[in-house]
Amino acid sequence: MRSRLGSAVERHEPRSALFAAGRSTLAVAQLSVLLVNSDTTLFADSPAVPGGMRCGGLRSVSLWCLLGEQGGGQVLARAVAIATLVVVLIGAVPRWTCIPHWYVNFSLAAAMPLSDGGDRAAEITALLLIPMCLGDDRKWQWSPVREPLPAWFRGSSHAAALMLRIQVAVIYLVAVTAKLTDPAWAHGRALGIVAFDPDFGFPMPVRAVLEPLLASDVLVGLATWSVIGVQCVIAVAILGGARWRASALVLGCGLHLAIAVLLGLPGFGLTMIALLLCAANPGGPIGVIEPRPRWWAPWSRPKDEARER
Known about the structure:
Blueprint: H1 2-11, H2 17-36, H3 39-42, H4 63-67, H5 72-90, H6 94-111, H7 119-133, H8 151-180, H9 183-186, H10 190-195, H11 204-214, H12 217-237, H13 242-263, H14 266-280, E1 288-289, E2 307-308
Antiparallel strand pairs: 1-2
């Protein structure tokens, strides 16, 4: 057991095109939240949260709370957050942007009174990316890997990669458990109910196209249970080898793209896709120049294309 773990750590190399795409997608997810929603939407005033911003306790160190809850402070906080996310998106100096990236995600999750379900996942994902980026001395996350990670960073990065996969498994297992204890999901009626919800239902053009299918109890039941089945497969496959994780990535991307379109939750969908991209990352042997991934299988690493340093 120890020798296998030691070998895995020695060979651990997280810096791939798939990993870079995951970091950038995570930045896009939070950018979509900031660019589409106004401050009054993000920090809606309510009796439970007067002023629309949660700044008590540890939340007081979040970006929005530090710079002020009113006027210019919110404008400056938004500008700093957007600038940080843009730098992460383009992939510049990952060693120096990974902690600011997490801080922006933490600040949004801490200060916003309402959640779309993705802000906490984004915060934890960005936190786990820090050990995987601190040892990266490249100026550009898309550049070829020419030097292995230092030994200490390799160990912490490997542990963070394992935690990312466990996080994915837990998220989907919790989702499956919640659905199975809900009578609407357990009896196969949930998607039919969701589709016609006046606030969170399918867009009218989509509903018009799918209405003949939604009228069939059998098809609605199959679709409802297929969601549960896909989530079960993702939860198990993400803990497997590279090929199993690739299957989890494909299924997860399809599921969350559908959620983004049908339920109008693009930020949540992009966050979960980013998490899956990073968790499914197969890594590679140290001391190699990473080959260009094949268009149909970005996780593939043909041995004949790898060159030792």
